[in-house]
Design goal:
mainly alpha, globular
Length: 69
């Protein structure tokens, strides 16, 4: 079973799960994934800053992770 992420998962943790998730984040408009301060932000916090729906982003990330099994 693939690891599941939530709105409370930090960006740094996400990238440790799979570095390729950075591509998903950048495609969604979150170009700050390389910024050191983003590593400690949750998906929900980063989504708010960028005007995104964190639920849709979490769903997209979890869909990606399921396909990687």
């Amino acid at each position: 079973m693939a690891e599941k992420v939530t709105k409370d998962t930090k960006i740094g943790e996400l990238l440790m799960i799979d570095r390729k998730i950075a591509v998903l984040l950048m495609q969604a408009g979150m170009h700050c994934v390389g910024c050191p301060s983003s590593a400690d932000e949750t998906i929900d916090e980063a989504s708010m800053v960028h005007g995104m729906d964190s639920g849709k982003l979490v769903d997209a990330i979890n869909d990606y992770l399921e396909k990687q099994e």
